[in-house]
Amino acid sequence: MNRSTAIAAATEYFDSGRFRLDLERRVAHRTESQDPAAGPRLRAYLSDAIVADVERMGFTARIVDNPVSAAHPFLIAHRHEGDELPTVLTYGHGDVQLAHPEQWREGLDPWRLTVEGDRWYGRGSADNKGQHTVNLGALEQVLTVRAGKLGYNVTLLIDMGEESGSPGLNELCAQHRDELAADLLLASDGPRLSADLPTVFLGSRGVCNFELSYRARPESHHSGNWGGVLSNPAVVLANALAGMVDQRGRLLVDGLRPAAIPDSVRSALAQLSVDSSAGSPAVDPGWGEPGLSPTERLFGWNTLEILAMVAGDPDGPVNAIPADARAFCQLRFVVGTDPATIGTVLRGHLDAHGFEMVAVTVEHGMNATRLDPDDPWVRWALASMRATTGKEPGLLPNLGGSLPNEAFADVLGLPTIWIPHSYPGCAQHAPDEHLLAPLMRESLQIMAGLFWDLGELRDGRPE
Ligand SMILES: [Zn+2]
Fold first, then answer.
1. Cα-to-centroid distance, 165 and ligand 1 (Å)
2. What rounded mean pLDDT belongs to the chain?
3. How far is the CA of 127 from the centre of ligand 1 (A)?
4. CA 126 / ligand 1 centre spacing (Å)
5. Under CATH, which number does the domain 3-204+368-460 receive?
6. 398 CA distance to ligand 1 centroid (A)?
7. Domain locations in the chain as residue ranges
8. Distance, CA 430 to ligand 1 centroid (Å)?
9. Which of 74, 122, 213, 459 is the most buried (most CB within 10 A)?
10. How confident is the model at residue 438 (pLDDT cuts 50, 70, 90)?
11. Any idea which fold 206-258+302-362 has?
């Protein structure tokens, strides 16, 4: 019994149709976490679609109440082989985005896994039920081939509120810090860089939304009678924004610009390109920070976007100076920007440029995380994936989008390795969400290789 036996077992798990059956019964659970009535169904996913499977693998599992949001329970399960052995924490989420069944193509039902060639349709097939089904299935095959002894401990955490912003995940990790302590987070979510490129990412950009507003007076006033002597909130706000981001999308607020991109991140990004597959928009040349490559702008830098802005009534403009103007903005940021300081930095910038009258309201966001691409765990994961697939994996220091990785990287202090099993065209969060069968088959092999190699580490650590 060896590594290739484990990979063959994972392949057979797919080819025999057992993976499909496991995914089919999980997709059938209507686990839309944004539906206020979904609480009992979210709990049922854990009790009916996960607990028995992991108990069969020797886990001790329990459903844990969410410390912040009663409707979104967690599952914590442990498979303990020895105190002296390393522990891997793995994470997935069983909730899905609202399905909107009426928007799906004729013949598709979001709650029934439908196979059409290489595409398997269903809500959650890509995000995230298919991904944690791959990981649990691969782990089970390795366990069988190793005759019930992995050589390490496994902790499994399933979140039922990820699509609602993972309420309570940071608090849960803080409350159960000792119980969730591990040597490594190995988890799967999100898309690969492209369908045939096995991918590793090490964290995600952070996100912070904020509103800028200026109300000059209670009512609007006739622009002929008052134009020239009354300030116009829309003009003021447009100028405030122009001082924060220029006409080429360059972020101008000093305190919100990141430090130089670290060499290890820069060299990882030099190997990548921005997704250009069919259906993706063309990148605008010259947009963003000058002197950076497109991948550095997308994954290694901070960006300020205006998501929406309004003054007066754009659908029925009248000859008046509007009373107020509002803009909804978003900062995406990399490691090094502290979200706790964003409100103060914005206030300081506006005041320094004469915009004391513009109010700033900052919403709670998500931290940026990024394991160093030079970390030994990264080299270990890349080597394992290379050995399994014969391909050079893509290494993405962090996703451009956001993921609740701060719970693992910051609260638990773990090195975080994410292996995505989806692809950019999977329509996650949209109608006709699907996975690609060949990609899932390869992902099962990759995960079986990783779970095998974890048991081969000397002293429980990569060299
Ligand atoms: Zn999602």
1. 9
2. 96
3. 5
4. 9
5. 3.40.630.10
6. 16
7. 3-204+368-460, 206-258+302-362
8. 10
9. 122
10. very high
11. Alpha-Beta Plaits (3.30.70)
